[in-house]
Design goal:
- This protein has eight helices and no strands.
- It has 137 residues and is mostly helical.
- Helix 1 packs across helix 6, helix 2 runs antiparallel to helix 3 and helix 6 packs antiparallel against helix 7.
- The longest helix has 19 residues.
- The radius of gyration is 15 Å and the shape is globular.
């Protein structure tokens, strides 16, 4: 769903919608600098893209699934903090998505969103190293 929303956001965004995505991205940056993952900032970024798509299906679905998505984002936040640069890398992924939407690079917006979601899923399912697993308990 979100790669398609990124496509429509790249095609259809207006200055106000782009400003909302940028504001959400800035909240992500503020959350990244102190190395704290904030699910609300992450969700707002993805929701702003869904709204910019100008298709109520995307924004309605995101709003309806907010609690479930936020739980997934919380787990994702834990997984990205396993490495020192994890949050910065995820911020860079978000920034690249924003830039592709801003520049109306439709296919790139799709591909970057797809890669971001796939990599987020993969980070969640990464196996902990034995030392990490022992220290976690």
């Amino acid at each position: 769903m979100e790669p398609s929303a990124a496509v429509f956001a790249a095609e259809r965004h207006d200055p106000q919608a782009l400003a909302q995505i940028r504001d959400a991205l800035e909240h992500r940056r503020d959350a990244t600098n102190p190395q704290v993952h904030r699910e609300d900032a992450d969700f707002q970024f993805h929701l702003a893209i869904a709204i910019a798509a100008e298709d109520s299906y995307f924004s309605t679905a995101m709003a309806a699934l907010k609690d479930h998505i936020t739980v997934g984002m919380r787990f994702h936040g834990v997984s990205v903090k396993r490495e020192a640069s994890g949050l910065s890398r995820v911020f860079d992924e978000h920034f690249a998505i924003f830039e592709s939407i801003r520049q109306r690079h439709v296919q790139q917006a799709h591909d970057l969103m797809h890669a971001h979601l796939s990599e987020s899923r993969d980070r969640l399912s990464e196996k902990k190293e034995p030392a990490q697993a022992m220290n976690a308990g």
